[in-house]
Structure formats: structure tokens, C-alpha cells
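Hi Prof. W.,

I finally got the histidine kinase prediction working! I wasn't sure whether to trim anything, so I left the full sequence exactly as given:
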Amino acid sequence: MTERAKDEQVGGRDTPPRADLNLRWRSLRLLNLFRAGLALSFLMGFYLQPAGGMLGASQEGVFLFATLGLGLLAIVTAVTLRRQWPNVRIQAIGQLSIDCALYFMILWASGGLETGLGNLLFIPVAGASLILGSRLSITLAALITLVMLFQEILLTWSPDTVEPRFTHAGILGALFMIMSVVGAHLSRRLRESEALALKRGLDLRNLAELNDYIIQQLRTGIVVVDHQDRLQLINGSAAQFLGITDHYRNVPVRNLSRQLTQLVEARRRKPYDRPPSFTAADGETLVVPRFTELGDPDNPGTLIFLEDGSLQSQRAQEMKLAALGRFTASIAHELRNPLSAIRHANQLLAESPRLQEEERKLNGIIERHTERVNRIIETVLKLSRREQTDPRRMNLSEWARDFRREMTETGKLPESRIGLTVPEEDIWVHMDPDHLYQVVQNLVDNALLHGEDGPGERVHLRITYLPSRNRPLLEVVDHGPGIPPDEAEHIFEPFYTASPRGTGLGLFVARELCDCNRARLEYRRQGNDTVFRIVFADPERWLT
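And this is what came out:
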């Protein structure tokens, strides 16, 4: 058992809390400082006092012995207190008992209670009430009183002219008893206050750490600037938006970011105008700032919120798409029954032996188009009944290898026809695995349908990071002719298709699945390659 473990076993059935234990150790250290100072003062006073002085007037040798013993006890106690061995209870009892014995020797050697040195005995009584509790402090006070009375009795038999002071001894004894009771009560209240203060301090520290963690993990940028335009707080999102690499404090904003300086100056010139949006440091994200005042109205600070403008547009789009989805799902459900009747009637008509060749062609046209309409209805209903997103932290590199292996094993693509580029380190993302599989499967199918069928790779999967931002991405690349620029902006709209056999919902559903996982699906042309890019949310700032 270690010394600190022994400290907690202070002899009673209850183990004192850590705050109480620390208070007792501090009390012993303060008592030892007083002991050392008292020994030094007595020693100097003994040699500097005039002839016939009070200190050691009766027994100089006893006085010097007690004073040197007090100093030696202070030195030894300093070592034991530093090592905290033995435990606090044993040290307190031992030190206070030796103090009482040495004080009595000093009192005897200096002439008894009439010198006023009996007041020194208040120190061990007070120390016992603070460290040892009421029971032991009362016991110590009673023993001290008995020893004083016994000392006065001895003085009556002494040949010296010192008269005994029984009344003085009785009054001191009564004061010792009162001090032990009151001191024990005050020490208990002090320990309770200490424990409460420690608990409140711990709660405040935990709350401060929690607040700091929440602020740093928010996707919304937060900046606090004081009335002298000095930066006081900035979280990670705001630092990315403003291109600030390090976190500064009490630094003028003009030395950190030109964009932040312009925002603060615009706020000061026109405090009631809506601040203008700006492009973030990455050159892509549109940032919408908002301001509010903090602190003293005479010298207010400024709290700046920096929000990703695409998120606001995304929320508005989500509301419109949600309403459109409910409306479309209702229409699709109502169309399903008559469409089934038409298809069934067309199948019965196809079985008639009286149909001519041209009529059979019309019958086939009806069948193909009813089947196409049915696929559209199935897709719309599937999208409207989509289950709640279940994002998980997943190894994107490992997932891509498994996807490529599955494409090869199912015979859809030979291994040589689907390329894969992954970095050496693992890349982790948050996304629903089923949704990711559905999106990539759709993009690979489009690449096989529209890409060039050359001798090399038909499609290539590439994993990397978005430049200048900590966001992973997955690219599906093919060597097709690409999409004309006037059509590229419409490819993610529902029912937009360039193929007579397509429903126009594949890319729309793929983007919807990415949006609900806080990812972004983009199309771009890179040289002779067609690239569909999935930009995942920052895995360090994912908030559910």
C-alpha cells in the first residue's frame, strides 16, 4: 500500500474526502512554519534580552533544550510532511503532543503562568480541533489543563518565590475547552466549505471544457472580438473560413485576416445593415456572417457567426423537396392502380389471335412505356419511403476495396477494367454504408453506359482529400465524352435524362442520398475524363 493510500486510512471507519485530507496536510504545514518561527524567535530573544529577562529565567538549560528541540522538530517534520508519511493522523497526534511537552518545558523554565507564555498552549489546542476533530481536541485540552494544574501544585512545593496561579490555570483550562469545541465546529464547517468549493471548481472546469469542446466542434464559425478589435475567441470552422492557421488571443484582427477586418469595420460603420456575404479562404464556400453585441453597452464586444451559405440553401431546398416528395408520392400511389389495369388489359389484348402485325407493334409500345412509367413510380415511392439515415464511421479505403472486389466477383467488371487509387493512410468518413453503395453503384452504372469502351479501364475509383480542407472525397472517373455544358446544370434535376430508356431519377436520388448524409455530389470535367465527386463531411466535425 502506498503512502497516499495510507493517508486515506486515518484510523476511523470513514475515509475523509480528498479535499478534507488536503486541508489537514496544509494545516500541518502552516503549524510547522509557526513552530520554526517560534523556535527562532525564542532563541534570538534569549540571547538578546537584557539581564534578568523573562525567557529561561528559572532554568536556562531547560529553556535552551526545549527551544532547540522545537527547532529540531520543525526540521524533522518538514521532511515527514513532504513525504506525507506516516499518515496525517499519526503525524498530527505526534507533533501536537511534542509541542505541548516542549511548551510546558519553556513555561516551567521561564517562571510559570505569570509570564503569559501559557497562551502558547492555545496553538496545539487549535491545531487539534482543526485536524483531529472534536473528540481528540477536547481530550487534548483536558490533558493540558490537568498538566497546568499539576505544574502549579509543584510550584507550591518549590523553594523558589514563584507563587502558584490556580485561578489563572483554571481560566486557561476553561478557554482551552471552549476553543476545542468551537474550533472543531468551525473546522468542520471549513472542511465542508473547502469540499464544496472544490466541487464547484471542478464543475466549472468541466463546464468550461465542455463549452470549449462544443464551440470548437460546431460547424458554424464563431468569432469573438472585443471593443478594441482584438481577437478573443475563434473556433475551427471560423479559422477555416477566414484562412487563419493558428488560434490567437488578444491579437488585433488587422494582423490576422483582411476579411475579418473588413467585417468588423463594416459593422462599425453601419451597425444596422445586414453584413455582406463573402467567399471563404478555400475559394468555394459562400459564408454568411451575422453579428451580435456582447458585454458592456459602452464598450461592447462583438460575437460573429459565420455560416456556410450552402447549408442555408440546402435547408431551403430540403423543405421544397420534402413537400415535392410527399406530393409526388401521393400522385405515384394514385397512378399505380390505373397503370396496373392498363398493363393487365394490354397483356390480355396481346393474347388475342386476331391482332395484326401493326397492332402487335402498338401493343409492344404500350408495354414498354407502361413498364417505364412503373419504374418511375417505383423509384418515387422508394425515395419517399426512404428509411432514416444511419451514418457510421467507416474506413473509406477499405470500403472501396470491398466494392471493387464485389464488382469483380459478380462478373460485372473484370479487375483490370475497374481501377482504384487510395492513399497509404486510412481515410475515415461518416455515411450510411447502404446509401454510399447505392450512390457509387449508380455512378458506376452511368460510367459503363455512357463511357467509352476502350481496351483499358472502363471506370476508376479515386480517394483523396479536398484541397486546403480536411474533407475526404471519392471520385468515380470514366473516359466518356462528358455532358454538354448547357445540360450539366440540369443532370441532378428529377426526370431529366438524355436517354430514352432512363427515368431521369438516378442522379437525383444519388444526390438526395448524399445530402441526407451531409455529403455533396458534384460533376466536373477534368481533361478528357468525366468525374463525379462525392465530398464527405469533415469527420472531425460531424454532428448528429
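Residues 392-541 form a domain with the Heat Shock Protein 90 fold (CATH 3.30.565.10). Does that look reasonable to you?

Thanks,
D.
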